[in-house]
Amino acid sequence: MKRLMHLSAICLFFILCSTTAKAQQPPVVDSIYFHLYTDSLKKGVYNYINVDAKMSNGSWRPLTSKDLLLETSYGKWDENSLIIDTAFKGAYVEVKATLKSRPELTRSVKIYMKVLPDPPLKTEAELKRRW
Question: For this UniProt entry, which residues form the secretion signal (predicted)?
Fold first, then answer.
């Protein structure tokens, strides 16, 4: 009887240890999402393309070009920044991000080009009057 209790205690110990070991594993990427800072792209500038990972523990982590394979229908990449030259005539570009460590995790987005010109900058005197 004592031997059976001792064996049961050992089994319980190993079960608890294996459960604890699983709980301590680091979170993994569940999915990826675009969180763009703007609703359109500008020509001739660096347009930062923000991609975040939703982790298995519910937290978020920013991803960089080290983590992602970034593709686009037009333009060139400088890390996470997409540069569209001024000759581009299209209305939008398509961007695709694929997690390098898990290629089945991919996300695509269509990002439109900025159409309206930027308003003129205010002069120093105009800013002082407003303040």
Answer: 1-23
Among residues 3, 72, 63, which one has the least CA distance to residue 32?
63
**Contact residues for 61 (Cβ-Cβ < 8 A; gap 6+):** 29, 52, 53, 55
Q: CA 52, CA 80: separation in Å to the nearest integer?
A: 12
Q: How many CB atoms lie within 10 A of CB 75?
A: 16
What pLDDT is stored for residue 10 in this prediction?
64
CA angle, 105 then 70 then 85, to 5°: 150
pLDDT digits (tens, 9 = 90+) for 16-71: 555 545 557 899 999 999 999 888 999 999 999 999 999 999 999 999 999 999 99
**Both tokens assigned to 40:** 């359109």
Its pTM stands at 0.72
CATH number of the domain where residue 37 is located: 2.60.40
In a domain, 18, yes or no: no
